């Protein structure tokens, strides 16, 4: 078996006590032996000096020439002073000159073990990983910390989008999270290794376990993947146990929600106690939220992501996995003012846009209602609003029930026989113009004349929207700051959209 000098330097014993003084560490080592004056150096031999030699001794330079002439792999000598001319000679000959702070004999033994049984280092690391992680369930933080210590390199746990969950990694963005296979990526000064964490019956990785070996450790890249696989199995055990707990909790929360939604009277003492145990306040005023998504989405697994997005937007809501999506609510101690409700709706609209980055989500929001019976009412309103929001891309697939009431009224007005022809004539100058001006106008009016919101719904820059609105006003000879003209155009857009949909 042959290995590079660099690979030897990656051994734990060598890494801690051997320094490179000169030469090419990519040279191949086939055997390692103590120096013997009466024996020729063989090709690929690493010559080990057991006893120190004075730095001025001519024998060091002579040994370097013998190793070069015989095709040897390098020289390992006890640490000490060395002449600069000797280093220059080693560099010129390309012979690695290594200095050992530890006993050269001990280093010789570890090198010969690796050469004799190249799988031994790999097996040792795998066994050490097994023993360190054990059979009990460990958290991701524990797993990452354990592996970091064993590999003497940074380790991180990533989700399926590449976001960091635990640990650290210098080049985290280099992990190709959409390729469900173990990865080995050579970087400028390191090697990146990544192993997918798969759950049963899933083809796409749920998480990724990755490490980055710097140049000093990069030679161990061949032995690390099996240890990553062992650690990935530990992460999988945690995932399955955590999933079981989440599903048990989700079933309990869904059952409690169903009992609350079926209330015809005041909740019983038992129901109040169960709600209190879950941390749900039934008093005060509630605003219902319904988030719908595709039936294929794992709502239990993605529930925490939904909670994180809501909290990031400043929404302190109860969220429960419920059907094809999530049902939730926000509770106020006192009846919220109209301004506070509008502010909450704006926060929830922003959360909808953020969720739509990774989910095919739509959201409906109810009006404020008091007490436990009001909770069922506002959730019912939110559910109706979400059902309509699903088919309303022009609203960003978000509807607040207060807006919905006006929208329903507008739709009723636009269903008359005489309104549609007039509506078509009103917005006719926009047809055939570049920039999809009719859709832009409809979205702008649905967004309550918000340039930023219109840009978010259309997926364009706000400057683009502003320029389109200016063109619309010029083509139609209207001023959209006047509420009567806005209402007329809103009605016209609704009529045309409804007829063409």
TrEMBL record:
Q: What are the PucR C-terminal helix-turn-helix domain coordinates in residue numbering?
A: 437-495
GO MF entries: DNA binding
- Keyword DNA-binding annotated: yes
Name of a matching Pfam family: HTH_30
* Gene3D superfamilies reported for this sequence: PucR C-terminal helix-turn-helix domain
Q: Where is the CdaR GGDEF-like domain?
A: 267-388
Q: Which family does it belong to?
A: Belongs to the CdaR family.
Q: What is this protein called?
A: DNA-binding transcriptional regulator, PucR family
């Amino acid at each position: 078996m042959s290995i590079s000098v660099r690979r030897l330097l990656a051994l734990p014993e060598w890494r801690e006590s051997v320094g490179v003084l000169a030469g090419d560490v990519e040279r191949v080592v086939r055997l390692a032996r103590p120096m013997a004056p009466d024996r020729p150096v063989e090709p690929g031999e690493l010559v080990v000096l057991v006893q120190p030699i004075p730095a001025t001794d001519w024998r060091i330079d002579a040994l370097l020439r013998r190793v070069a002439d015989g095709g040897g792999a390098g020289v390992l000598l006890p640490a000490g002073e060395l002449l600069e001319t000797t280093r220059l000679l080693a560099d010129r000959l390309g012979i690695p000159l290594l200095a050992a702070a530890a006993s050269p004999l001990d280093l010789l033994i570890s090198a010969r073990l690796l050469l004799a049984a190249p799988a031994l280092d790999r097996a040792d690391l795998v066994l050490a990983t097994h023993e360190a992680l054990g059979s009990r369930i460990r958290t991701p933080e524990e797993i990452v910390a354990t592996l970091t210590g064993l590999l003497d390199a940074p380790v991180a746990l990533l989700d399926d989008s590449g976001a960091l969950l635990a640990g650290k990694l210098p080049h985290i963005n280099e992990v190709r999270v959409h390729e469900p296979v173990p990865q080995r990526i050579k970087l400028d000064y390191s090697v990146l290794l990544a192993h997918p964490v798969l759950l049963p019956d899933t083809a796409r990785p749920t998480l990724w376990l990755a490490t980055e070996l710097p140049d000093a450790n990069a030679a161990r890249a061949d032995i690390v993947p099996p240890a990553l696989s062992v650690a990935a199995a530990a992460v999988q055990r945690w995932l399955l146990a955590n999933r079981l707990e989440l599903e048990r909790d989700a079933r309990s929360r869904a059952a409690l929600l169903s009992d609350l939604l079926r209330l015809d009277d005041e909740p019983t003492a038992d129901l109040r106690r169960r709600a209190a145990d879950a941390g749900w306040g039934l008093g005060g005023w509630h605003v219902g939220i319904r988030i719908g998504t595709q039936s294929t989405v794992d709502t239990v697994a993605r529930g925490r992501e939904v909670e994180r997005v809501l909290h990031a937007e400043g929404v302190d809501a109860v969220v429960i996995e419920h059907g094809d999506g999530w049902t939730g609510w926000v509770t106020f101690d006192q009846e919220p003012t109209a301004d506070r409700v509008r502010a909450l709706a704006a926060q929830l609209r922003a959360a909808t846009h953020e969720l739509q980055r990774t989910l095919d989500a739509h959201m409906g929001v109810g009006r404020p209602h008091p007490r436990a019976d009001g909770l069922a009412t506002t959730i019912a309103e939110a559910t109706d609003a979400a059902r309509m929001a699903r088919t309303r891309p022009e609203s960003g697939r978000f509807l607040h029930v207060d807006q919905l009431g006006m929208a329903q009224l507008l739709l009723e007005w636009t269903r008359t026989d005489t309104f549609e022809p007039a509506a078509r004539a009103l917005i006719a100058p926009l047809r055939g113009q570049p920039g999809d001006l009719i859709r832009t106008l409809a979205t702008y009016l649905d967004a309550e004349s918000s340039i930023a919101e219109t840009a978010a719904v259309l997926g364009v820059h706000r400057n683009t929207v502003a320029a389109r609105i200016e063109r619309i006003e010029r083509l139609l000879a209207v001023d959209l700051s006047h509420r009567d003209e806005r209402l007329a155009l809103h009605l016209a857009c609704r009529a045309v959209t409804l007829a063409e949909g």
